[in-house]
Fold these 2 entries.
Entry 1:
Amino acid sequence: MVALGGTISVPGGARGARLSGAEITAAVPGLAELGVALDVRDVHAVPSGSLTFGQVLDVVELASRAVADGADGVVVTQGTDTLEETAFLADLVWPHEAPFVLTGAMRQPAMAGADGPANVLAAVRVATAPEARGAGALVVLNDEVHAARWVRKTHSTNPATFGSPSAGPLGHVVEGRVRMLLAAPQHEPLKAGPDRERLEATRVALHVVTLDDDGAQLQGLETTHRGLVVAGFGVGHVPGALAPRLGALAEHMPVVLTSRTGSGSVLRHTYHAPGSETDLRRRGLIDGGFLDPFKARVLLRLLLASGAGRDAIAEAFAVRG
Ligand code: ASP
């Protein structure tokens, strides 16, 4: 188990220091009775909004070594704010059958109805469940098991915040038993993590298109960024006036089209007006499929940092999107 920080580790009140992984697990009723030998490591005790791609890849490497040394599975505790992105990043590179399970909490440990202990217990059950093997990175909260590629944080405060609006949960933890109902399609992990210096230098922008958007925010992007994800309206639309600007950017960098709606896929050939998905694809934008803007940005940055060219990037999105 790797402890990273977040609400699950915030003691609350005047206490400043974060709870360690050992303190988190000590407060979980029923965990000792599971008989799972937990090797708990504390790394990067920060709010999840301060995590970096490099730190997440470090955790994946640490977890990978643990699995190579015989661990049945991995649990990562972290803040919920960026969990949908870190989980997907881990999923893209996780090469093992052993489950890589991420969890957290919406309520601090000292609050009434704190959800951290139940989430840790469920996460440990999933990490050690034969049924969850081969499913890549999973997010377990509120007794639900979600695929890293579909899961979203959908509410700012509700403990039932994690959902997979396009797919539903893959499984549930019921009376302590892990019940997997669905299997997400599995893909080859991306080749060994990218060079870290290159990763840091690889900036990918995310532009959320809004009503009457004139694209002023995209000014000069060619010189500062190596890729762009566009979160378009509905099925992948932008104002007609913005389309040429996005087309011009697509001549300099990969530009991936996604939907800002929060679920569902962008379309490929249903609408034909300026700024429609057909128009944007003709101008060189890459179809992000079912990937939401945040996950598309994770994939694009990793691909660029690994040296992938435009064709390889388009192919990766065709497979994973
Ligand atoms: N701000 C916290 C974090 O992501 C929120 C949480 O853990 O739920 O670190």
Entry 2:
Amino acid sequence: MSAERIDGKAYAAGLRQRLAAAVPAFERATGRVPGLAVVLVGEDPASAVYVRSKGKATVEAGMASFEHKLPADTSEADLLALVDQLNRDATVDGILVQLPLPRQIDEQRVIAAIDPDKDVDGFHVANAGRLAVGQPGFVPCTPLGCLMLLQDRLGDLSGMEAVVIGRSNIVGKPMAQLLLGANCTVTIAHSRTRDLPAVVRRADIVVAAVGRPEMVKGDWLKPGAVVIDVGINRVPAAEEGKTRLVGDVDYASAAEVASAITPVPGGVGPMTIAVLLRNTLVAAFRRAGLAAPEGL
Ligand code: GUN
């Protein structure tokens, strides 16, 4: 093992402290604290856990959390009516509708209904477009968290070769846009890419976001590469009946070759909620016509 572990948990804790420290100035200027509304439709246990931890983290940062739990058989019209109400609510700066949604609801229609200036998930096409053309907007939390970890580790990324594995709208595509914005030479690889190991071997920076357990092997990497593992895959553990979490990167072999790598868990995962709170605070400052604090 030679690679340094990139401690996303520690970075996220520091970011959350900086956010909490910025809340009082907002409150003095506006008479209220930033507010995040989280909407959960149905009883998916994993989603319920995420929503609970988002609410807890929001309150810990000194912001207001508004949780809306709707039954699994909620109609699209009823959900759109709630989104409309949250769009108009001046105490709500950020709106997050937890995905996936039940089958009877069209996710794209719901995302399109969210005020782009409250879209702290960065999923609205207006925010995808702003990111693509370099205008201020909101960037999806996971890729923005990955960029923060990379810049913290490497400083200026200009001229570096970056390979993003995965082309989802939530991670791969916005990650590629962020790296391009940071002056990397960016390749997006995916399931149809020919000779993926050869493509990955070019990279100074590898971001793996494919959802395939331990797919990226150490001998795919250029020595000294920095590896960001976005994967969260539950696989059977050695002990009968137990499971364990692994990333999209085979940590043991990759750590022999990389200079730095995020672990799973404890790498990218903790960044997502911290960046959600960051986006909410930034939304609040922008909506109030105030300059958002630097360094967030
Ligand atoms: N479901 C899993 N991750 C996310 C996320 O980041 N945002 C939303 N809205 N739903 C999710």
